[in-house]
Design goal:
- This protein is α+β, with helices and mostly antiparallel strands.
- The protein is built from seven helices and eleven strands.
- The longest helix is centred in the N-terminal third of the chain and has 40 residues.
- It starts with a helix and ends with a helix.
């Protein structure tokens, strides 16, 4: 058992006071200084000395540990290893994010395909009076918009945005040509001749018209609502309709729908991502087959 210094001093005082009145062999070499020859005195001295040695050793260790020392020895090799590890971790993160994005895109396309959006192989008349099928555009990327040429503000703005999107995609690093397509929801006024004049204001725009039944069938396929408003005194009227753009891949599948709240830059960014994902999925399916 090791006694604490306070316990040793207390016990020492008791023994000292007791030994004054007992028959212990006490030798005094100086006044007030006692030398105990009994066993208790030896034990006390041994315990006290051992405790103080441990205390001094702990103090030395504490003082040595309190000195500030460098935790890491920085060398060119350690820096190089850190750079390599960081690059590997970043590469792994990018690879996982790309896989997540690809899976998300694949799930979205599958959901749109299952819903049947844009699945109709429609047949309409373009601004040159030529009858064309939707399947004629197989192998091309399309950006489709529904509207009407007599629209005072929204449709022209959206078509201008569509042109910026097409140009932005063509000028990107991918450099893919996207065909802009405009289908009227007002076939009574948007005749072939009128569509020909209207589409001249937009570069490379293909406009389509047809009978009301044909237009209604196509609009229904893309989940586009439209309604003819009441005519005013001049016989003019407004067509209320859904405002959105459809990005269609070379297989004729709708891959995304962009509402009016999206600006041209956002649509370009989203479209480019879909184009990249399409190339990756095409390669993935080719490898499986």
């Amino acid at each position: 058992m090791i006694l604490k210094p306070s316990q040793v001093r207390y016990f020492w005082k008791i023994c000292h006071s007791v030994c004054r009145h007992c028959d212990c062999k006490v030798k005094s070499s100086a006044p007030g200084r006692l030398y105990f020859s009994n066993i208790s005195s030896s034990i006390l001295r041994w315990n006290y000395g051992r405790h103080m040695k441990l205390y001094n050793l702990a103090s030395v260790r504490y003082q040595s540990s309190s000195k500030k020392q460098p935790l890491i020895n920085i060398t060119p090799i350690s820096i190089g290893v850190s750079v390599v590890i960081s690059a590997a971790l970043y590469g792994l993160y990018v690879w996982l994010e790309q896989g997540k994005q690809l899976l998300k895109s694949e799930q979205r396309i599958s959901a749109l395909a299952e819903s049947g959006v844009g699945s109709l192989n429609w047949s309409l008349t373009d601004q040159h009076g030529k009858r064309r099928l939707f399947s004629d555009f197989t192998g091309q990327w399309l950006m489709l918009y529904f509207g009407f040429s007599h629209c005072p503000d929204i449709c022209p703005e959206e078509l201008e945005k569509l042109m910026k999107v097409v140009q932005g995609i063509s000028k990107s690093s991918i450099s893919v040509n996207v065909q802009p397509v405009f289908i009227t929801l007002d076939p009574d006024r948007d005749t072939v001749d009128y569509m020909h004049k209207y589409c001249k204001d937009f570069e490379n725009l293909i406009g389509f018209t047809g009978s009301m039944d044909e237009i209604s069938e196509v609009a229904k396929s893309y989940r586009v609502y439209f309604g003819i408003g009441e005519k005013d005194s001049d016989g003019d009227y407004i067509v209320d309709h859904t405002i959105c753009m459809y990005l269609i891949d070379p297989k004729g599948q709708v891959v995304d729908v962009y509402e009016r709240r999206y600006d041209a830059e956002s649509i370009v960014k989203g479209s480019l991502q879909h184009i990249k994902d399409y190339a990756k999925l095409k390669k993935k399916y080719a490898e499986k087959s």
